[in-house]
Amino acid sequence: MTIDPVAVGGPGLPQRRRVLTEIPGPASLALHARKTEAVPAGIGTTLPVYVAAAGGGVLLDVDGNSLIDLGSGIAVVTVGNSAPRVVDAVTSQAAAFTHTCFMVTPYAGYVEVAEALNRITPGDHAKQTVLFNSGAEAVENAVKIARAHTGRNAVVVFDHAYHGRTNLTMAMTAKNMPYKQGFGPFAPEVYRAPMSYPFRDGGADGPAAAQRAIDVIEKQVGAANLAAVVIEPIQGEGGFVVPAPGFLPALVAWCRANDVVFVADEVQTGFARTGTMFAIEHEGLVPDLIATAKGIAGGLPLSAVTGRAAIMNAAHVGGLGGTYGGNPLACAAALAVLGTIEADELLERARSIGEMLIERLTALQRDDPRIGEVRGRGAMVAIELVHPGGTEPDAELAKAVAAAAAAQGVVVLTCGTYGNVLRLLPPLAIPDALLAEACDVLADVFTALS
């Protein structure tokens, strides 16, 4: 069955779950066979369901199945697939021009996005922004800027961190498989400190966990050698780890006292995902630099580093940039995303989604000892699965739950250093009824797998 995405209309798709074939269906399987021949095996596919259209909270596949989307393309389409303001903005920009390269002949859209990010990121100090394509590029350039500013080389990251797939950001990423295995040697001068992980570190409070990390940094690196501390305010791929209250403030205070640049990697947490515009705001903190991507442009490739003007200006002329960085189509999309967040009150929507998910999943946890913890903020919620009676990770259960949910038309992603975490990242455009139905399916899946 061939679906015409123009005919069905992305954002106008019926908001319902509908399973017409086995998932994946025959048309998806045929496409996947072609993918296997044309695309290297290194590009994995979590769920080989080939999408023809998407909108609201559903994905319509080429077999006519309508799946509930709890992944948002890994936190990218926060405002929804084919969000009307984004579609209109990109269409208009494409009709004008698609590319000139901002470093050759610039255009207003780049400047407007930079101005918007300077305005909405935490802190009222003078800021500047530079645009790139991917989250990894943003993180890597944040490190470049911090090194130029401080004249130091060392970078500290944390256990369970994920920062990207470039050589430097692979070194910064904690998890070996599949991200690092066989791809070394990696960039030097990257050091790892222990993360606050309340479920797995004996319940240490935030200040105590921070002191443990600071002790490692001071003994193994030395503040005088350190350019930057880079951390996700809520870890993404590492398992949606929410640090204990007080952990991040203590790190920021130590960085300030030692002239170390504090970098918030908000690639997955930014742009309303956690119920604030940026996750670092939950503790009232102001980073020196903030790296953003994913939800910034509604699915178009765009990322940014925003930070204190005195730090951002450290790099020499020509030291930052890239041919496609701040592409005009992506800039148009980003401005439309920011407009959508404000006009549709998506900060409040993210908080509402989080409340619903936490309530439903906590109720499920009370009756199921395999659910070790339910955690998260806003529309960024995780279920950590363990073997009953302890905290031993159960990655096989996580894999089984995700597969069984997909078979019933609900897309759920896994994550975590141990592969035992289910992560829920619904688009903020998802209707309440569809979200409740997805929770019902998950409950049925846990029962069936008990």
Automatic annotation (TrEMBL):
Q: What is its EC number?
A: 2.6.1.19, 2.6.1.22
Source domain of life = Bacteria
Pfam families reported in the protein's UniProt record: Aminotran_3
Q: Which UniProt keywords apply?
A: Aminotransferase, Pyridoxal phosphate, Transferase
Q: In which pathway does it act?
A: Amino-acid degradation; 4-aminobutanoate degradation
Q: Which cofactor does it need?
A: pyridoxal 5'-phosphate
Q: Which reaction does it catalyse?
A: 4-aminobutanoate + 2-oxoglutarate = succinate semialdehyde + L-glutamate; (S)-3-amino-2-methylpropanoate + 2-oxoglutarate = 2-methyl-3-oxopropanoate + L-glutamate
Spell out the SUPFAM superfamilies in the cross-references: PLP-dependent transferases
Task: State the similarity comment.
Answer: Belongs to the class-III pyridoxal-phosphate-dependent aminotransferase family.
> Can you name this protein?
(S)-3-amino-2-methylpropionate transaminase
